[in-house]
Amino acid sequence: MSFRRGVVRQSKFRHVFAQAWKAEHCIDDVRVSRVTWDTQLCAVNPKFIAVIIEAGGGGSFLVVPINKSGRIDQSCPTVCGHAAPVLDIQWSPHDDNIIASASEDCTVKVWQIPDGGLTSPMTEAIVILEGHSKRVGILAWHPTAFNILLTAGCDNVICVWNVGTGELVYQLSDAHPDLIYSVSWNKDGSAVCTVCKDKALRVIDPRRGTVLKVKEKVHDGTRPMRAVFLSDGKILTTGFSRMSERQLALWDTKDLSEPMAVQEMDTSNGVLLPFYDPDTNMVYLCGKGDCTIRYFEVTDESPYVHFLSLYSSKEPQRGAGFLSKRGVDVNKCEIARFYKLHERKVEPISMTVPRKSDLFQGDLYPDTAGLEPALLADEWIAGQDAPPLLVSLSGGYSAPPSKHRDTLRSKPKLVSQDSGSGAAPPSAGNAAAPTSTSTTAAKETEEEVPQPRVATRETDGNTDRPKREDDLLNELLAEMKALRAVVLAQSQRIELLERQLARIEDGDV
User: Fold this and answer.
1) Distance from the Cα of residue 312 to its chain's centroid
2) 409: part of which helix (H) or strand (E)?
3) 135 vs 276: CA distance, rounded Å
4) 103 and 136 in contact (C-beta within 8 Å)?
5) What digits encode the pLDDT tens for the residues 222-265?
6) Three-class SS of residue 478?
7) Non-local CB neighbours of 60 within 8 Å, separated by 6+ positions
8) d(CA 376, CA 385)
């Protein structure tokens, strides 16, 4: 576990909690696809939500703006250009309007979604990529190079495309002897890791077409596996043990002989889909058919993978979409957001770190990958590598309204009111200084008349405001000076009377 001998491990993500959004913010009447392919069925970016849906006579997916909620009408336009069911969809990391789709019709198509969403059914793709001989089930955009897309199909072939030209750049046809389960790029896009039906984990350089590392039998079970590259070069895999227990394992690419950590969870049948957040180094595991989302933190200290908590609900999930960090609400300390697919509903689930302060939490939001690509397609093809270009999330932070804003705005009024009520203290000396009191009362009546005029001038243009404030300040200071003189005179008078009283008591008079 994440503690040793009763000493709790220090982490700012220990108390992350998940919360489903209210029903009025969900999307209803979405006919989620029943395809048996183990995929997320949903893709999300800061602009749009895309969901693969049931369609007769072909394949289609729904695209709606991310702020959409409520019921989806049956006549809502979809992207419906495939001749067979769609198996995977992925948004481009460098353009929020570009999405790629892979289908059983052996093609990959790239679509450009207009701002605001679809107004009519979209059947014409901007690019069609044809190179697979069997159905295509895996898509992976390059994380730093513009317009580089990797695809993998049931023909056990990996293709790398330049989407800008529609050209097949690299093809790896002999690296995998069996069905490819998943493909993941590393941080700078210089290598990919794959897991295959032969239970092997491979690290591949797609440009040279060579297998750099191989680990046989990553998980002993026969059911599908998943693998994802972490930002520090390690690889996290999910799979099944020989006893059909679901497992999570962490591997160091420098030495694949033994896993750094292995955790066994339960005996459910659903494939665990890992979603990795490189900014927080957290991994979220969603199992198809599960009612839970588990989340872990990966660190450099043993046992390396620390279980944090799990979100549980009554309804099982058909799939899930993971929102990129650019779309989370930094004002609510939201570090991740899922879009859980029910049978006919899409439900957002927020992962939040509880914080009391209203300020921007810089420790929760380090700079994250932005839209700007670090390389062009030709530069990456020529052999260049570069880490992603980072942007700050503090631009999405808006300060909450100040609790003292109204007080600050009313300060000039308080000054003008003080000048009228400044006569209250002299009234304490009414018995000793009636002349001073009458003078102050006269000033009160004089001050009461111009006050509305002052307010009018302030609203008209603030032209006479500094001069008027100086006059009020001078009058206030004069009143205080006169009051001090009165107090001093009365204290001297009291002292004299006390002396006379003492003489009378002593019999001197």
Assistant:
1) 21
2) helix 405-409
3) 27
4) yes
5) 899 999 999 999 999 999 999 989 999 999 999 999 999 999 98
6) helix
7) 52, 53, 78, 79, 80, 82, 86
8) 10
